[in-house]
Request: fold
Amino acid sequence: MIVALPQRRATGSASIDWTAATRELHLRNDWISYALAVLENGALGQLYIGPALARGSSYRHLVPDEFHGFSNRLGEPVALEYPTAGSGDYRVPAVAVDHADGSTVLDLRYLGHRIVRGKPTIDGLPATYAEDEDEATTLEVDLRDEPSRVIVTLSYTIFRDVPAIARSARIRNDGTVALRLRCAMSASLDLPDADWDLIHLSGTWARERHVRTRRLELGRQSISSPRGSSGHQHNPFLALRRADTVEDRGEAIGVSLVYSGNFLAEAEVEPFGTARLRIGIDPETFAWILEPGAGFATPEAVIVYSDAGLGALSEAYHRLYRQRLARGAWRDRLRPVLVNNWEGTYFDFTEERLLAMAAVARDVGIELFVLDDGWFGRRDSDNSSLGDWFVDRRKLPNGIDGLARRVEALGLRFGLWIEPEMVSEQSELFAAHPDWAIGIPGRTRTEGRQQYVLDMARPEVVDHLFAVLSGILGSAPISYVKWDMNRYITEPYSPSLPAERQGEFFHRYVLGVYALYERLVGAFPEILFESCAGGGGRFDPGLLAFAPQAWTSDQTDAIERLAIQWGTSLAYPLSSMGAHVSAVPNHQVGRITPLATRAAVAFFGVFGYELDTTALTDDERHEVQEHVDFYKAHRDVLQQGRFLRLRSPFEGDRNETAWMAVSDDARRAVVGYYQVLNRPVPGRDRLRLRGLDRRLSYRVSTWPAGTDQRARASDGLRGGDELMQAGLILAASREEGVRRGDFWARLFVVEAE
Ligand code: DGJ
Reply:
């Protein structure tokens, strides 16, 4: 079972009730209710989403009963489950089609429904799941447009252990002529008021997923990706929060899309003051032909409602995504501490140099050595060889197998970088199959990082990649794979598709990526996969279903990482965030931060190093060994505990960040406190913790030990009540305050006696 959130109302079940007399459906668990009703005109109306309501009562009156359909009340903002355009609802639709005659109206009326235990899968698409039938209950509602015989099946799964509902839709053409699907959202949510702040995670390369907050305004506000992947710029996640919602108090609603391609997440406020949220595949770059009898499945959207602050909203996503989206052998295993050679060597390495790095890594307690880009073809820079997945014997005379065995002989596991979806113009693969690179015949292909994207919409490309990559992965003791993707798609087009189906290209690309992942993960169930896209350019729930961790960002500066990891944590668990210590001056921003600060930030994630270990001084090696030991001692909490945000790097003067990870039984916590610039004459600050047990006594110790006298004043036995209500002492004496300097971090380990 999913380790449940601290329960407040413990029925310990998820239920879906149908009341025939009032034609209502009520999905409910210990936290939330989601209620819908068949309206008088047959449309499926939305009644409520919020804290759990009593079972057995009717909530139908929440829709005005004089409503008789849009033909009578043009423009009335009635709350609908899967709205359509063209018959009186002028807000953004959930679904849109072109019929054979060119008309576009769909009038979806309730046809019937089923309630099933557990959770069905979605063909070809990753999705959350239930491990046993009691963990979740699923409602499937069929709606039909009578003239065209389009059937829409809306699917809703309510989980027992988290305040979350997974939604998706399946659109089927039961008619006799083909039609074109132009928009097929995964979920649409009509909220009765618009008094919310909108939160999204945005940025660019090396500063992904910064928290952006703005007032919800009249009109449409959206984020999207037309890039072929979810992208560095926006993440397929939106949240609404009330103006007074904070981390541990107040209402919030999140929508997150289990998808790795072009997406749209949008809020629309109309003049009556209601708000519509929709999320799904971006309709701008999508069209899908539905022949008679054919169906289309949307990706899944996960809706979380919290009345206990943004923190509880995030925790629901963390639990669900770590335990019921991630799959495979590594889902529940503690992840190894790794060193990756990328920033240590870039393309310039030999087997001997790598082995020297691995030997030091072993000495300091690192468990996995990862060979990044540059091991194949003749790849001495990023302008060649992608697609030529055979070893470069100039650098690795004994092949991957020889290197991997020698790394294993040192006592480390071995991991390998690949970038399957790409091809360099200078490569044997491109010479043999120039048409496999995405492009439009007769037009210039736009290059990005001197490379092209392979047409993953073509099954033969996926087959080729599976054959080649499974050959490599099977040829050596490889325990880990980093799957990179370093450019976006341009000139979207696939010669394998007829003209009228080119609108399917982007989605078919993503289906191809998922198919390849599925086959490789299936063939190598013991390999730990980490996804990556030029850092965090495809950090989304879709890939988490295949790769339980992702490289969070190419930004390895500790201070920049505070913002990135904080933002990422809004929707993603610590177990999904690769976080490495790199050398200084930092390669992205040139900043020099203390080694302890770099470690203290990277501890909150899947920890590792990204540097030349042979360049560490003796003192640094000693320190790194202590850091690795510390992480190993607490990685159960740091990877699988509850993650609670305490002080935001996006608020106030942006000089501080604090967060903590605490075990599910509340007996052990690691607290991180970070200060960017040192300020003169520090105040008498205290940091209030969360998630502890107020009845327990905790022993508090600071890390690194023995450097800060006042911080040590926090050391000793403290009550859970004191730590949460009075807080931990952060103040320093004047002299110690001076010694802190800039970019300072302290950890506190809090352990129940
Ligand atoms: C981008 C990744 O994010 C880096 O970590 C590294 O793997 C490079 N690509 C290699 O080309």
The first helix runs from residue 309 to 324. Residues 342, 372-373, 417, 484, 486, 532, 534-535, 551, 554 surround DGJ (CB under 6 Å). The CA atoms of residues 228 and 506 lie 6 Å apart.
